[in-house]
Amino acid sequence: ARRAGVSRSTVADFEREARRPLARNLEAMRRCFEAHGIVFLPDGVRRAKGCPDKG
After folding, report:
1. Is the dihedral of CA 43, 36, 9, 24 positive or negative?
2. What's the rounded Cα separation, in Å, for the pair 20 and 40?
């Protein structure tokens, strides 16, 4: 949440499917994941080549 610049409750609500985040928050989370090596695909996600397991 901190790295994406959104509140912890935004992430928690999204994870438990309590509500859909505002478009700007969803975009911020997506950008954060992509900046840390996550690739979004039509059928799921994967780590980018060379992306460490942790970090």
Report:
1. negative
2. 18
What pLDDT score does 42 carry? 94
Residue 17, domain member (yes or no): yes
Burial 4-19 (b: 16+ CB within 10 A, else e): bebeeebbeebeeeee
Per-residue pLDDT tens over the stretch 1-55 = 999 999 999 999 999 999 999 999 999 999 999 999 999 999 999 888 877 666 5
User: Tokens 């994870």, residue?
Assistant: 15
* DSSP category for residue 20: P
- Domain extent at residue 30: 8-47
Asked whether residue 12 is assigned to any structural domain, the reply reads yes
